[in-house]
Amino acid sequence: MAQYRRWRHGGASYFFTVTLQDRRRFLLVEHTGLLRAAVKAVRERHPFEILAMVVLPDHLHTIWTLPKGDDNYPMRWRQIKSAFTRPLPRDSIVTPARERRGERDIWQRRYWEHLIRDGQDLRIHIDYIHYNPVKHGHVRKPIDWPYSSLHRYVRRDELPATWGTAGLDVDLDLD
To answer: Considering the entire predicted model, what is its pTM?
Structure first.
């Protein structure tokens, strides 16, 4: 897989799930421009490669490869969350504890991270990311979800546009 060859030349790669505090809100797809700008700004200051990503209404999944010797993804996530949140309207009540820390109630404080172990692990997680909109019932075919790196894979002829429509040959259960 071409993506795997690129992956091996960088530092460590991580799979992340980052979630909104209120799972009923659709902020991530309502404000994709803000999210894109936040990620771009952080990447310019603190580089990382995005191997795969999907943005759903209330959470996102992504795989990043950080530069060799750099494992400071917590700082990157803090900056992305902050840059996304700052321009949003202040339409929610913030608890006193969050206010003291300068936080709002947009994001869950924690996130899931997983160190990618090898090429097979990478493939499973990329497939999981690209199939996630179908899993959550947003679309019937992965290519129909507009906020997915699957489109980039198709443009580069790394995956067919029909990927994920005729069953998958990998286990998508990450548990």
So the answer is: 0.84
Count of other CB atoms within 10 angstroms of residue 18:
19
Which of 46, 97, 36 has its CA nearest to residue 73? Answer: 46
- Of 14, 128, 131, 147, the active-site residue reads 147
How far is the CA of 172 from the CAs of 6, 68, 128, 161, 167, in angstroms? 23, 28, 5, 19, 11
d(CA 49, CA 64): 5
Share of the chain above pLDDT 70, in %: 79
Say which residues have a Cβ less than 8 Å from residue 46's Cβ, sequence separation at least 6. 70, 72, 75, 76, 79
Task: Give the pLDDT confidence of 29-41 residue by residue, as tens digits.
Answer: 999 999 999 999 9
CA distance 78 to 125: 23
Respond yes or no: is residue 131 known to be catalytic.
Answer: no
Lookup: tokens for 112: 């899931």
161's enclosing H/E stretch is none
Structural contact between residues 147 and 32, judged by C-beta atoms closer than 8 angstroms: yes
How far, CA to CA in Å, does 11 sit from each of 15, 17, 67? 13, 20, 5
> How many other CB atoms sit within 10 Å of the CB of residue 136?
14
